[in-house]
Design a protein that fits this description.
single chain; alpha+beta; six-stranded antiparallel sheet; 6 helices; 14 strands; 39% strand; globular
Length: 276
Amino acid sequence: MGKAFPVLSLCIMAVQMAGCKPDEPPKPIWEDVKLTDIAPAGSGPRLKPLETADFELYICETPLENFSHLNKIWPMLDARPLLFRNFAVFGGNNYAAGVARAGMLDEITHLLTQAGGRQMARTALLLPSAQAQVVQITSLDRKRDIYHASSQSNADSTTIGPGIFGLRITAARPLGINGAADVMVYPVCGTPGTGLIESQLRPDPEVRFMDLAFRLRMSPGDMLVLGPREQVQDQKTLGGLTFGNPAGTVFLLEGERPQRLPAVRLFILVCRRVNY
């Protein structure tokens, strides 16, 4: 009996210690509860997708000496969907344009690669209806006279700069049509940061070459190609300023060392998505 007492005492102490263990805190009422269990279906405001047309603009350059390779691209394109403000002025400024079928981007870039070309820039454009964006081609550090054809003369002259020379691209929702955008393109030269003060100091901060404007309707997958009709030798003309780069770009031609060569530009506008 004497040996059983210590064992019994230990058992009693173990039971007492177990009884003195503090209680665990209760789980929060929201634990294991999903938000969908609390909020009824369809409750709360829903974010409306942005009504924009989404594009990508590729600026490519090829060596001027390989300009003849670009002539293989134009037969692949269709100019019939384009509506020109003045077709004679458009062509008179050494501009050419056409629409490519969906899926032809790889084929066109392959031809540019064969010509030793390279992609210089890719710009994403998200355009609400009736809104525009200017994509920079080059910057002008001082005033200069640019020669071009216009509806008034085949040998007109306009003073531009200093500022940004580029392409103004506008997209608008067609009346009564969903899933497409009416796109307008034309060259402009403007001063950066044309805010309220700048507008008061210079009433017309942007020079617009509207005679070269053209329109087309684009849906996802459509591509527009814009380039020169003939070789460009300098940047004294509007076509030369748009498509020529006489200062040159470094190209890596097959079998040759990298070298800087005078270049010619080509623009490819791809419609990615339209949410109008």
